[in-house]
Amino acid sequence: MIRIGWVAAAVLAAVAAVGAALELSPWWWTGAVPLAALGLLGVWDLAQRRHSVLRNYPVIGHARFLLERIRPELQQYFIERNFDGRPFDRDVRSIVYERAKGTDAEEPYGTERDVYLAGHEFLVPSMAPRPVPEQPPRVRIGGPDCTRPYDMALLNVSAMSFGSLSSNAILALNGGAAAGGFAHDTGEGGMSDYHLRPGGDLVWEVGTGYFGCRTGDGDFDPGKFADKAAHPNVKCVSLKLSQGAKPGIGGVLPGAKVNAEIAGVRGVPEGRTVVSPPYHRVFSTPRELVRFIARMRELSGGKPAGFKLCVGSRGQFLAVCKAMIEEGTAPDFIIVDGAEGGTGAAPLEFADNIGTPLTEGLITVHNALVGAGLRDRVRIGASGKIATGSDLVKRLAQGADYGNAARAMMFAVGCIQAQRCHTNTCPSGVTTQDPRRARALDVGDKTERVRRLQEATVASALQIMAAMGVTDPADLRPHMLRRRTDPQTVRSYDELYDWLAPGQLLAEPPESWAADWAAADPDRFAV
């Protein structure tokens, strides 16, 4: 209401100044004209639906867009004066913003990266490029125990909960998924009406708090789970073991954001900070985990069931693989979350120091499943700073079948990285439960931006693959991705990492894997 008051005050002052100019002295026009301009600008800002920041901060919000317009020149200034001689990476946010707005265009000049620096990665083009497929391929999710498989898009909305995000943000994300034909992961905060109303395909994620399917004392309630999993919008069910930005601890939703609606969706007290337990009650061993995933699939009526994790000990994941073999069942998918993933609330030391980055985690899971003879029945999703087509292609070459994006999708719905997610004062209405701030996020406009971003990013990935001589993502191989290890040396991912042959762990484990495989125990998570 304060923002409306300032605009109203400017309009009234302009009217008064005009009256004074007409009745008292022409000198009053010097004040009437700027006041009228400010008032009209404020009214326009409040009425327009394209920019959430301007709706929440009329007039003054234009300063942010002014800085955005001069950003390229400022960036070049600092590139030229970077003391160690290294240019900054291209601003990925600008790529995402432009694609979401539908204004993505070719740019002049060459790369802004120093291609001779250690760590630089590049994809290998082919001397025989292929035509870009007219329709994006999809990935069939569902192993032999799944009776209702789902065809997943190459890029989907990653896990972000209602509560962490506003109702309008959830509506826009799910509306974009519905319009573009891709999936929307609910996050661990439960399945709300805002997830269901637009009609987009859902991956229902269940975390350690069992929100939406919990008993009064916080245990898993199979009846509630089965009832909600039966909804036709729910295409897959996922058990969250850990999250890249904060592995080993539960999610946190500050009490200021836990209103009556969110409390109802989650089944928790209103106004109290919600801290999910760091561990699950439904399993304590790898074998029990595998059995519970099978139970989730059964309770959901045969829909694909899987789990998400940030990889830690390779031996522990191998123990899960052994449990799959001995139990004769496996998850239909595994989502690998990288330590570089984001979050709205987590201890800084966890975000900076705990968890395996996506590259190593993804390669570990892929190789473990291949070596255990399980890769053909388990699909792998990759989550962790996937924002562009090249990001997606790199993850597919490293072993993923599809990707999930969170931060890029937040940019599409208006996030400006104000880093006030935990304060309930998000200036763009994305991560707030304040209805006055959330209303600034126009659902129709942002729905279309989410759809455009996903479509453009997948189109970019397909164009890159075609330049590499590939039309099917399954044909991407590690040798197609290269990394400079020092100014004189470039090595392919095929050389940088061990890549196991199908069933190799069962027959004769290589020396680098033998000790972990031998120690892996399906009946305990050994440290």
Number of domains: 2
Q: How much is the radius of gyration in Å?
A: 25 Å
State the name of the first-level CATH class of the largest domain. Answer: Alpha Beta
Q: What is the first-to-last residue Cα distance?
A: 55 Å
Beta fraction: 5-15%
The class by helix and strand makeup works out as alpha/beta
Low-confidence segments, given as residue ranges, are 72-90
Work out the helicity level: 40-55%
Shape: globular
Average pLDDT confidence is 85
The largest β sheet comes out as: 8 strands, parallel
* The CATH superfamily title of the largest domain: Aldolase class I
Number of strands: 15
Instruction: Indicate the CATH architecture of the largest domain.
Output: Alpha-Beta Barrel
Q: And the CATH topology of the largest domain?
A: TIM Barrel
Number of helices: 20
Biggest sheet strand order reads 4-13-12-11-10-7-6-5
Overview of the molecule:
- The chain has 527 residues and is α/β, with parallel strands linked by helices.
- The protein folds into 2 domains: 1-88, no CATH class; 139-518, TIM Barrel, CATH 3.20.20.
- Helices cover 41% and strands 12% of the residues.
- It is built from 20 helices and 15 strands.
- The protein has helices at 2-23, 29-47, 52-56, 62-80, 92-101, 167-180, 193-196, 222-229, 260-266, 286-299, 314-327, 348-353, 358-371, 389-397, 407-412, 435-438, 443-467, 493-496, 504-507, 511-519, and strands spanning 121-123, 139-141, 150-152, 155-157, 183-185, 201-206, 234-240, 252-253, 274-275, 305-309, 333-337, 379-383, 402-405, 481-486, 489-492.
- An 8-stranded parallel β-sheet has the order 4-13-12-11-10-7-6-5. A 3-stranded antiparallel β-sheet has the order 1-14-15. A two-stranded antiparallel sheet has the order 2-3.
- α10 (286-299) packs across α11 and α11 packs parallel to α13 (358-371).
- The radius of gyration is 25 Å and the shape is globular.
- It starts with a helix and ends in an 8-residue tail after the last helix.
- Mean pLDDT is 85; it is low at 72-90.
